[in-house]
Amino acid sequence: MISQIFILSSKGDHLIYKDFRGEASKDSINVFYEMVTALSGDQPPVVMTHKDLHFIHVRQGGLYWVASTKTNPSPFTIIEFLNRLAALTKDYCGSLSEKSVRMNFALIYELLDEMVDFGYVQTTSTDILKNFIQTEAVSSKPFSLFDLSNVGLFGAETQQSKVAPSVAASRPIMSSRGEQGGKNEIFVDVIERLSVVIGSNGVLMKSDIQGEIRIKCFLPTCSEMRIGLNEELNIGKSQLKGYSSAVRVDECRFHQAVKLDEFDTFRILKVCPSQGEQTIMQYQLCDELPCAPPFQLFPSVEKDYVNRVLIFLKLRCDLPPKSTALNVSITVPVPKGSVSMSQELSSPDQTAELQPKNKALLWEIPRFPGGAQLSALFNVML
């Protein structure tokens, strides 16, 4: 059972606090934040204990979603609940950020009242909760073409598009009382995250693709939806067949609501999506990319003086001109004795920082158009 639920900002500000059983004091919030910030590394343990109080947390949207308990429940159950709470907050508030939580605190408290009773989880179903939630969401901000979290998701077009972008990525699933019902829309997106290791000679050494098919549904009720995938899709290396250029993934998993009776034969997914955002399929492909990687890196490293290393990186995006890569990050190993760094970047929206603990420098590019070429010069002092 859950004693407390609270949401904290990355700086430790108290955004939401709900005590269900009165077993722990409110000081437990400060205790948790001190424990998290005192740990070294970017990934603190999900479960921590202070005296007889257990803290279980996840981090989403730059916020800490925390549950405390004095009993010994299944940590995976609490983690799943916290992830579901974050997803429901995004569905009902439109976006997941500190600002949206502050502006919709009444709505989040109403969600918690319906989801948890005296520490016991009652429901996390959108279809059930929508019958009881009465508070209207307050939009944190209007849609912006320069908001990188929304571009390319759920009908939000890139800047090159000639049509007006959709606000579906940041729109709450419940329409306000003043509207004559919201738009009856459903969006399907394929999101892929590519991680590669490139040698100092520019040769691709290792690659990994993690993808997912995500649905955002604004329909009050939705009948069965059929999603047809490529019929040449093969799962695992042992299933390659025929002479055609097959589409292969190493492994995949599906949402529990997906019906797979036609998947093996026709590669068709059948699902009755509920309101909100949900991932219906996740897949992974390692080592063998089906085509050339979308980026080419040309590195150059030279030692200038005894205590200085010059690193020059040229990065080319081979995507089509109408496509854009978002949130590109390049991690470069540096010598153990690196103490400071100066840099020259090709555009002002890029950032770079030296991470001595990780013995690496991090170069981040928020937006990388197809066909473009960027460069960076790093002067690392040893």
TrEMBL record:
PROSITE patterns with a match to the protein in the record: MHD
Any single Gene Ontology cellular-component annotation: clathrin adaptor complex
Stretches assigned to the MHD domain: 183-382
Intracellular or extracellular location(s): Membrane, Coated pit
Predominant location: membrane
Stored SUPFAM superfamilies: Second domain of Mu2 adaptin subunit (ap50) of ap2 adaptor, SNARE-like
Membrane topology classification: Peripheral membrane protein
Family: Belongs to the adaptor complexes medium subunit family.
The protein's name in its UniProt record: AP-4 complex subunit mu-1 isoform X1
Organism whose genome encodes this protein: Danio rerio
